[in-house]
Amino acid sequence: MEAKPKVNGGVKDGKQNRRMPAIHGPTNPMVTPLLTDLYQFTMAYAYWKAGKHKDRAVFDLYFRRNPFGGEYTVFAGLEECIRFIANFKLSKEDIAFIRECLSPTCEDGFFEYLGGIDCSDVEVYAIAEGSVVFPKVPLMRIEGPVAVVQLLETPFVNLINFASLVTTNAARHRFVAGKNKLLLEFGLRRAQGPDGGVGASRYCYMGGFDATSNCAAGKLFGIPLRGTHSHAFVSSFTGPDEITEKSLKSQDGSKVCKDFVSLTQTWLSKLKRLSSSEGVFGETNQSELAAFVSYALAFPNNFLALVDTYDVMRSGVPNFCAVALALNDMGYRAKGIRLDSGDLAYLSCETRKFFQTIEKEFQIPDFGNTGITASNDLNEETLDALNKQGHEVDSFGIGTNLVTCFAQPALGCVFKLVEINNQPRIKLSEDVSKVSIPCKKRSYRLYGKEGYALVDIMSGENEPPPKAGQRILCRHPFNESKRAYVVPQRVEDLIKCYWPGSAEKEREELPTLVEIRDHCMKQLEQMRTDHMRRLNPTPYKVSVSTKLYEFIHFLWLNEAPVGELQ
């Protein structure tokens, strides 16, 4: 992959020198240096008291298990971390509050120290946001004075955990639904508060959804908005007599229908006479028809009706079709219907047949392809079941199970010290999955002949990088019998510098949300489908180099206490 030219103060981008763009603060104003756990400040004081607060530390942020019983995760939340670190500064009010929270024996010099710290001596290296990632591989590597970096731990984990979880959930829904279905995020009302709602809309879009109902997210992030009406709108009407303004100008402005209600009623009568509609419906609900007509008069270019308030096939669909055909006479094309209850597979198929019959009988081009949207507490399992049953749904509106990550509430990111003052450190545990991988590392992704990712490999910072066409021994970090040679066709260096200590220094630019979404979609396409499937997915291999493997076990033996039998 050809590297993009970098831009910074003093570095040419091909034509001229220009500075890196400024980095604004976090989207959420609650993300401040106080969005952390108290023990970060108690440790900072203990470091300062011991004279260790400036010790150069390296921390890895990673997770131990993929969510939702799957074998992949999508990394998200990086931009908010960089926004936070670029504007990190404790105010006088913040410091006064911390002083009240800590022991009265804490010395004044510590609080003076807090007033002077920022992140100008911190460096952040990370995998690109929107990338497919796997357990144990560092998503972020944070280097800097140990006291300062520990103050970043809780906000960083907080910003990455939910973002990555909901982006992964969205990507999983996209995979099951398929590339050609329109996915709409409708979760705001069921989300865990305003923060959860706005964040979920952003990261669902990143994970492959096409639009949201959330107006705030649309404004903040430029996400396309979608929405029509609820059952309340339909049931608020009692009949066509309520409609006072009945005229509608044609789409091209050449004519005016003075009584659009009568035009709709005429079409409804024609539908009743269709031989194929005998026994399907008789008298439709007239209050529902009035609601549909009113909505069509308000939005003739975007008419989409919720058809299950009373009865889908005996009222909702015929009423919709009557209005849609009347709109067609005036040069407009109805968008479609939404199903929010019932047997979605059966109802969508029956509706499609009805649309196709109308197209054939009345010679209305493409009416048979009128859109069908489905909602009603959908999730991965429901989408999979619909695919197996066979359905005619074009788009899905998904809310509660998506934005709340109902199937799994947290990702479980961790933030572990791997090096201090150039001395590698390891965290041991009787649970091997909790043993950390020490030292400053590089991470690479090795691709095979067919273009799919084969394995991720970690190596020491100073080891030569793997090369395409070179035979590489990939070892499991902890199981000596699990090892394999790989001859990659392509090697991707996963870790880039996103914060070098200043917004003006050379670094990776933060991409737009659309660019991150595109990157995510490309990443998912580079994964084998057996890694992505819902049931019994194949585990993706994460490995270490031979040198790193040997060093892990040397340090493990060196740090583990030796027991004594008596």
From TrEMBL:
Any single GO CC term annotated in Swiss-Prot or TrEMBL for this entry: cytosol
Location of the Nicotinate phosphoribosyltransferase C-terminal domain: 440-551
First-level EC class: ligase
Similarity comment text for this entry: Belongs to the NAPRTase family.
One GO molecular-function entry: glycosyltransferase activity
Classification via Pfam families: NAPRTase (PF04095), NAPRTase_C (PF17956), NAPRTase_N (PF17767)
Pathway(s) of this molecule: Cofactor biosynthesis; NAD(+) biosynthesis; nicotinate D-ribonucleotide from nicotinate: step 1/1
Function: Catalyzes the first step in the biosynthesis of NAD from nicotinic acid, the ATP-dependent synthesis of beta-nicotinate D-ribonucleotide from nicotinate and 5-phospho-D-ribose 1-phosphate. Helps prevent cellular oxidative stress via its role in NAD biosynthesis.
Cross-referenced Gene3D superfamilies: Aldolase class I, nicotinate phosphoribosyltransferase
EC numbers, comma separated: 6.3.4.21
Name this protein carries in UniProt: Nicotinate phosphoribosyltransferase
Entries under PANTHER family matching the protein: NICOTINATE PHOSPHORIBOSYLTRANSFERASE
Annotated ranges, domain Nicotinate/nicotinamide phosphoribosyltransferase: 335-434
Domain of life: Eukaryota
Taxonomic lineage of the native organism: Eukaryota, Viridiplantae, Streptophyta, Embryophyta, Tracheophyta
Entry keywords, A to Z: Glycosyltransferase, Ligase, Magnesium, Manganese, Metal-binding, Phosphoprotein, Pyridine nucleotide biosynthesis, Transferase
Natural source organism: Lactuca sativa
